[in-house]
Amino acid sequence: MLPKPKKYWTPQHWASWKPFGIGEQYPNNYWEVFRAIWLSRDKLPYAWNILDKGVCDGCALGTTGMKDWTLDGIHLCNVRLRLLRMNTMPAFDPVLLEDVSQLQKQKSAQLRDLGRLPFPMMRQRGEKGFRRISWDEALGIISDRIRATTPDRLSFYITSRGTVNETYYATQKAVRAMGSNNIDNAARICHSPSTAGLKAALGAGATTCSYKDWIGTDLLIFIGSNVANNQPVTVKYLHYAKKAGTKIVVINTYREPGMERYWVPSIVESAVFGTKFAEDFFLINMGGDIAFLNGTIKHIIANNWVDQSFIDIHTVGFAELKTSLESQSWEELERLSGTCREQMYAFAKMVKEANKAVFVWSMGITQHECGEDNVRSIINLALTKGFVGREGCGLMPIRGHSGVQGGAEMGCYATVFPGGKPITPENAAQLSQHWGFDVPASKGLIAPEMINAAYQAELDVLFSVGGNFLEVLPEPDYVEAALKKIPLRVHTDIVLSSQMLVEPADIVVLLPATTRYEIPGGVTETNTERRVIFSPEIPGPRIGEARPEWEVFLELARRVQPDLADKLAFADTSAIRQEIAQVVPQYAGIQHLQQPGDQFQYGGSHLCFGWNFPTSDGKAHFGVLLPRQRELPEGYFLVATRRGKQFNSMVQERKDAITGAVREAVLINAADAALLDLKDGDKVILKNELGELFCEVYIAPIQSGNLQVHWPEGNVLLDKSKRSLEGAPDYNAIARLEKI
C-alpha cells in the first residue's frame, strides 16, 4: 500500500507565506472561471451540462464531468475552461467567407473567435472566397476526385483535440475501404517515439501505471515535461503526492516555475499559501537527456545500486549496456549533457534510495531526431531498479490531447492497423477477412510525408480533420507551398483555421463537424492511463448542418466503393463500439459503455504487472544507447521550442501567466545575456540557415548555452528533414542571436 496524504496542513510545503501569493507570478484560475461564464453567458445551462456531464475535451487526464478516478473533489482546469466557448459559440454568417483577403491577415485565435462553421462551403481557384454548397454536392466532388486518382495519391489526417475512438475507428476503416493506408493522426507528431520505445523494451506501448501511483511513490520524476502548463489538473495530484511524502524531481533545460510551485485553486491550503512541488531541478542541455541518464546509470552500476535479482531474472541486455557505458567517458557525458558528474551522482543517489518511482515524460523527450533513444534511456534507468509492473512504479508518457491515446489504437495510423498491429500482408489478410473487403498491405504516408508528397505534386487529395499543418509542422513557408499544390483540399472542423484560407490549387472544400458533446448516442475517449471513458451526448443547441465525422467518412467511402455499401455502415456509435471490441482485443468491454460514468482501464492498473513482460522472450530489454553528438558552432545556441498560454498550437494569450513571458520572448540565461550585453526587453533576432525570428529578451533560469522560444512561432527556425525514426518532427534547432 502506498502512503496516504497527510490530512493536516503542512507549512513546510508552502510556496509562500503571503496569502494567495500576492505579487507572485501565477495563473489566476478564479478569473478563468468568471471569464468562461461571461463568454458562454448566452448558453450557460448548456455550458454547465458540458462541464458537469461530458468527458473533458482538453488534455488526456479524462475527467468525467468534474470528477476523476484518482482523487475525490472537483477537477476543473483553465485548459478546459478556455476550450468551453468553442463548444457553446454560435455559427458565423457564411457571408463572412465570400472574400477571404482580410481574414488571411488575422491570427488563428481571431479566426476561432468568429464562430462555428455552419455549412459545407467551397472555393475554386481564382475565386475571392467560399460559397455555400450542399452536403450532397460536397461529397460528390470529393468522391469523384478520389475515384479519378489512385489510392497512393490520397492522404487523410486527423488531429486529436476532442476526437473520439468511434471517429478514429470508422474513419480508418473507411479510408482503407478506399484502398489507402495514407491515414495518420496527431499521435505521430507527439508520442510515436514513446510507443515505439516502450514496445521495443517492454512489449507494451502505453503508459504502464496509473495516476494514483504518483501519490505516495518515493520518487516522481518529470523529464522534458511541464504538466503545470499542459495538464494543469495534475497539480492537484502533485499537491497530495507531496503530502504523502513523495519526492518530486524535474530534469529539464529550464527551471519551469509551474513545476517549482503552484497555487492549486480547489485546495484551500494551496489556494492560500501555494505548494512547492519539485525539490530538485537538474538543468541539462537541450538534447542532453541520454548523456545525463547514461551518466546516472553509470554511477548506479559503479556503486552497485542496481536490483541485480530483477535484472538477472526479468531482463536481457544489461551486460551489453554496462560494457557500452564503460566506454563512455565522464568528460563526454558532461559536455553533451551540459552538467557535471556530481549532479548525475546526486540524481543516481535519489534513485538508489527510492524503493518505488514513477517516470513521466513528454514532448521535451520525444520531439527529437533521437526521440526513441531518449525514451529508451528513461526505460533503461527504470529497469535498473525494477521500477515497472508494481504499485507506485511506472513509465508514463503523459498525453496532451484528450483523444490522442485512442488514435493509433483504433488504427488511425499509417504504420499500424487497429490494436497496434503492424501493417503486414498477414495482418492485412486477417483484417480483410473480418471486414469483408481487401485491406491494403503496405505502410502509408505519415503526416510529414504527406506534405512532402504534396510539395512534389504527388498528392491529389488531402482530407484534414481538424489540425493545422501550417502552424504545426517545421518550415511553414514550405508547408504553405505544399498545400497550394494539392488539387483538392478538404478541411473538416468546427471553426476556421489559417490552413483553410491558403489559396487553392483547384478546389478547397470546408465541412462543418460536430463536437464530441453533439454526437448522437455518445462516444468514448481513452486517457493517458489507458482508461476508456464514455462521454454522453449533451442536449442543447446544434449548429447548422454540422455532422459527426464518422458518418461523413463512411458515406464518402460508400460513394467511392458502392459495392461495399453494406460493409461500410453503422446504425449508431454503439454499433461502432461493438465492432471495436471484436477487432481490438485490449478494448474488449468498450461495447458495454453507454451511460455517464461508464469506464474501464484496459490492461488493469499496471501493465507488465508482476514483471510479466509481453515480449517475445517474456523479458524486459535494456538498450545500448550512445549520446547524441552535436557540435555547436561558435556564437550559436541550442534552441528549444516551448508552449505558453496555449492548448497545443491554439495560442490563447500573448502572455503566459505561469512564466510571465510574452509570445515573442526568447528565454536566456543571465550569464549568457550579460556576455552579449543584453537586458530584459531588448530586441534581438535569432537566425539560422532556415529563417529568422524577431524576439524580446527574457532572462530566465535556463541552462547556459540554451535558448527557448514559443511554438509554433519558432517553426521558422526548424528543419523539416529532422525527424525521429517514427516520424515525430524535431522541434529544436541551433541558431545565433544578434541584438537589433
Describe the structure.
With 740 residues, this protein is an alpha/beta fold. The protein has three domains: 1-88 and 208-398, Dimethylsulfoxide Reductase, domain 2; 114-190 and 402-532 and 547-591, Rossmann fold (3-Layer(aba) Sandwich), CATH 3.40.50.740; 636-739, Barwin-like endoglucanases (Beta Barrel), CATH 2.40.40. It contains 27 helices and 29 strands. The strands form eight sheets. A seven-stranded mixed β-sheet has the order 2-1-17-16-15-3-4. Strands 22-28-25-27-26-29 form a six-stranded mixed beta barrel. A five-stranded parallel β-sheet has the order 9-6-5-11-12, sandwiched between helices. Helix 22 packs across helix 24.
Keywords:
740 residues; alpha/beta; Dimethylsulfoxide Reductase, domain 2; Rossmann fold; Barwin-like endoglucanases; 7-stranded mixed β-sheet; 6-stranded mixed barrel; 32% helix; globular; molybdenum ion binding; metal-binding
CATH homologous superfamily label of the largest domain: Dimethylsulfoxide Reductase, domain 2
Compute the gyration radius: what is it? 25 Å
Q: For the terminal residues, how far apart are their CA atoms?
A: 59 Å
Instruction: Report the CATH architecture of the largest domain.
Output: 3-Layer(aba) Sandwich
Largest sheet: spatial strand order: 2-1-17-16-15-3-4
Helix fraction by DSSP (H/I, runs of at least 4): 25-40%
Count, helices: 27
- What number of structural domains do the residues give? 3
**Percent in strands:** 15-25%
- Low-pLDDT segments: none
Protein name: Oxidoreductase alpha (Molybdopterin) subunit
GO molecular function, one term: 4 iron, 4 sulfur cluster binding
EC number: 1.17.1.9
GO cellular component, one term: membrane
